[in-house]
Each structure stands twice: as structure tokens, then as C-alpha cells.
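**Paired protein data**
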Amino acid sequence: MSKRHEWSSTLTYLLTTAGATIGFGATWRFPYLVGENGGGAYVLIFILAMLLIGIPMILVENVIGRRAHKNSLDAFSPHYQKKSFSKAWKIVGIMGLIGCFGIIAYYMVLGGWVLTYISSIIQGVLPLNHTLSAQETRDFYMQNIEYNPLMVSIYTLVFVLLNYIVLRKGVSDGIEKAMKFLMPLLILCLIAIVIRNLTLPGAKEGVLFYLTPNFSKINSKLFIDVLGQVFFALSLGFGVMITLSSYLSKSENLIKTAVGTGILNTIIALLAGFMIFPSLFSFGLEPDSGPKLIFEVLPIVFSSMKFGSILAVSFFTLLIIAAFTTSITLYEVLISVLSEKLRLKREWAVFWVLTFTFIAGNIPSILAYGPWREVLIFGKNIFDAFDIISGNIFFVLTALGASIFVGWILDKDAKEELLNGTQSKLLVEIWFYYVKYIIPIIVAIVFINGFKSSFLD
């Protein structure tokens, strides 16, 4: 077996995993869920869930990926894990691939939406030289997103082609180099916008809403939203962490990298909140606008600011950079499987993955708000169905399968894998029994409640 590529440094790996986990999960999904769930209570439970579930689950996928040193499908193969068990465990890898396709199907379209906004602001189609009304931003969204599938298709294709340029160069020359440039740029832009928004009049009210827990808001829905966000935000359950860790050196300290990934993701998510809520409260806007928060509400904020057009372009550019750092790692999951299973040259594997996902996933998601709006799956349009089915079924089932696989199939071999590069034997023992007995119960509860709320209620 030929030697698998390894990351050039721990920092490069951390930047890449941070890029994989930041994306729209931190900059789009986290803020609107905070707003819907009453602010500080959600933030508090999110931080606790990241520590108690997120980081242990990162280690689960890291162990599987690095031990096999193969793609996220073969990582569940007895041959590459060098252990005797049923080949049926590959079903876990297959579910992860399906979930990965599901998120790519609509994720790239969100990238197309953001590029549409950037272009429209620059061209003056979305004028921010006067204070916009809620109706004006709603009309723009309807006319340029929901009722203009051709424009969204073009910008989505542009976003896909940007991914192609990086991915065809491979892990070292493509993904590593992109992350070394994009992640510091993303963090600097984020900090700059946060500082600007914290200086707005009335920003204090937004900060208090964001950080002050209202314990009356804590309910079963909040827990489901938090745990779902942890999986989404950390790219758990769809093969990303397994794939990225398959390029890790055996001497790497997995505990340190997992903790670093979890902490960095939490910091970025918290910064995203500071970027949004002070400005909303400063201009008297409601924080509970849901998924369309950044597309229909924030343009009103920017139109009320001095140099609003520049700030808006900066904000949406930050979003597209965050989305890009995630999308290239999502694609890498499918590319690594295709190239290794079919022994395709990387250039062709990249071409076929991006082409197939664009035709079979992105186009239907775009049409879901246009000509195909009447096509419903479980009562949801195609775009929302990709999100709910992948997030509430395949991500969680894959994570559940992975935790059982590590705790009950790899067993002592999982502990040995984690001990490579670390001397924290007691910590490894605690993690192992926690993953073996506690995590599967928590994940199963999340799955049952998420399934009920999405498909039965």
C-alpha cells in the first residue's frame, strides 16, 4: 500500500479542520438559532455541549480515520482497520457519504446566494445608500433568489468552479495552501467587523441578549437545536473529520488537535454572534428571524450605517470565505472515496464529483424555490429536505454508528490509537468508557427527538 499523504504541520491540520468546521455553521446557522432560542441560554448550553459531546466525538472520528489511513468508506473496512469484524460496518461510511452529498446539495447554493448579494450590492441592484424597509429587503430576496433560478445557478456554478481550482491541485498544493491564506484572513475580517459593531449605539443591549442566560428558554427544542448544531458545526457524521484525520501522522497528539478544533470552532461561533446581535439591537430589529436573518434583516442594518455598502460587501465576503473553507473539505470526502475506490486520477475524481453534485444536488435545490416549489419531500421543498434529511437522519446515525464502532468494535485498539502521541493514559481511559457507554445514548436521544420534530410533529 502506497504511503498516504500527511499534513505538513499540526498548525496546517488545525487550520484545515477549523476551516471545515467554521463555514455557514458558525456564521449563518449559529446566530439564527441563538436568536430563535432566546439568546444567552442557547449560547451556554452550546458551550457545554461542545465540551461534553463535540470534542469527544471529534476524537471518535479522528481515531477511525487515522487508524485506517483511508477514505471515510474504507475506514470501516476490517482490512484497513487490521481487525476482524463484519463488512456490514461499511454501512456507517455509506450513510456518511449520503449525508455529505445532502449537505453539498444545498450548501453550494447558499454560496451562490451570498455571491448574488455581493454582486448586487457592488452593482447597486441592492442599494444601501438609504435605509431599507423590511419589505424592500424581502422583495429583493424574492426577486433575486427565489424567483431568479438562472442567476442563482450562475453564481452557484462560480462558487463550484472556485472549489474546483483548489481541489484539483490536491491536498498539499491545493487545500493546505488555501487554508494557510484563507483562515487568517477570515479571522481578521471577523474581528474587524465585531469591533465595528460593538461600537454602535445601543450595542450593549445586543450583547446582554446574547450573553445573559434566560433559563426559562431552556426546553427540549433548545437541546435538540444545540446538539444538532454541534454536529453540523464540527462537521461530524458526514466523513469530513474521518477523511482529514486519515492524513495525520501516527505521532500526532489527537487529544490536543481535537481540543484545539473544538475551542477554535466555539470561539469563531461566539464571535459570529458578536458580529450580528449588537447591530440588530442597535437598529431595533428582532433577532428571531430564522434562517433568513442574514439575507433579509442584516441588509437593513447595513443600509442604516455610514459606509454601509462597504461594510455589507465585507460581511458577505467573510461569509463566502467561511463557506469556501468548509466546501473544499466536504468535497474532499467524496473525492477521496472516488479516487481510491475506482483508482481515478485526482483531476478526474474532482471533475466527476463536482459535476455530479451540481447536477443532482445543486440544481434541484435551486429549483426548489422556483419551478419545483410544489415538489415536496416529507412536506418540505427539495432544498429544506436535503438539509433536514442529511442533518437529522444521516449525520446523527453516522455519528451513532461511529461511536459504537469505536467503543465496541475497535475496543482496545481505539485506546492504543489515541495513546499514539500522548501520555495521558487516564484521560484516554475516561474518554473510551464515556464514548462506549454514554455518547451512544445521548446521540440516540438526539436522533429520536430530531426525527420526531422533523417528520412526525
